[in-house]
Structure prediction request, 82 residues.
Amino acid sequence: MLSGKNLLIVRKKLVIQSWRLHNWKKMDPDSILILMFSKAERGARIDLIHVNVPNHDLRGVSRGWHRYYWKPWLEYLKRSRR
Prediction:
């Protein structure tokens, strides 16, 4: 459903990737995903920026972040603290 590649990785600080979903039109540009990692008062913080998502898939991509990434990551982190 998704293809992409790493454009830049700065260990423990930054990941920049290009993403493309299978249902995007050929004329749609690849989207760019930026993940920034930093320390926070109670652990760590991840800031996410996802640009160039085509309007026709913006809702699906936005929902997908919560369903397939943030929620599973949170569950994993909760289990690993035990």
